[in-house]
User: What shape does this take?
Amino acid sequence: MNIPSVAALFLVLACVSGCASPRVAAIDVAAIEAMTCTQLDAEIGSTAAQISSAAIRRGNIRNRNIPSWVPGADRAVNAIVERRTVQIESLQASQTALTAARNRRCT
Assistant: This one.
């Protein structure tokens, strides 16, 4: 087995085992309201970095060349890309809530 086929096999196994599922946290409105303006700014920056990181990982997965002989490889890649998309959308919702709270309370 060459390196790309091993990587493809690992990708398929990771998807099947659930290791590729992102951890998506719910928006905690009470925690956002308790944050200071400095904490809101830091959290917005952290969320932006997480969005960028997830988008890069999604692009890397989408651009991976998986051999056609690997059963279910295309379906696995599509499932992982969809999970990353859901993660990005959740992070964007969190960032929107954080930005709205900052705009309401901070000048």
Summary: The helical segments are 3-17, 29-34, 37-62, 73-105. The mean pLDDT is 82. Residues 31-105 form one domain.
